Amino acid sequence: MSIARWAFAVASWVFLGAVLVQVFLAGAGLFKLTDFTLHAGFGWLLSAMPILLAVLAFLARVDRRTTQLTVALLVIALIQPELAAVRHDYPVVAALHPVNALLLFWLAWLVARRSTVAARRPERPLADRAG
After folding, report:
1. Neighbours of 1 (CB within 10 A)
2. What are the tens digits of pLDDT across the range 51-104?
3. C-alpha dist (Å) from residue 5 to 19, 77, 90, 122
4. Residue 94's closest CA among 79, 80, 84?
5. pLDDT at 124 > cutoff 80
6. Half-sphere exposure of residue 26: CA atoms within 13 angstroms, side-chain side
């Protein structure tokens, strides 16, 4: 059992849960339960978490596809708050913010599922880690 693999799996599921909290905060702002301050602040924090996921993916020595999906998740997460930030200057680009959120959720789901499979699977020797 690899501690790095289990840490990657736990962090992946925590991130997926945090994405759901972020969607709730957006809904709370949309329906006037609060303003968007919580959503915005949590979003900036949330966009940094995939950096940890990418580091854990490399430490866990997961398969190439899972690593690629994790890096894609990192890129999408870093883009997400920037899309909202350009709402005044480029509203059409900013309108991609919720679309990107759907992609972010889907990638987070894939990474979480794959990280769990990797955590349950015994580690392979270095020579077998190409795929």
Report:
1. 8
2. 999 999 999 999 999 999 999 999 999 999 999 999 999 999 999 999 999 999
3. 21, 21, 41, 10
4. 84
5. no
6. 12
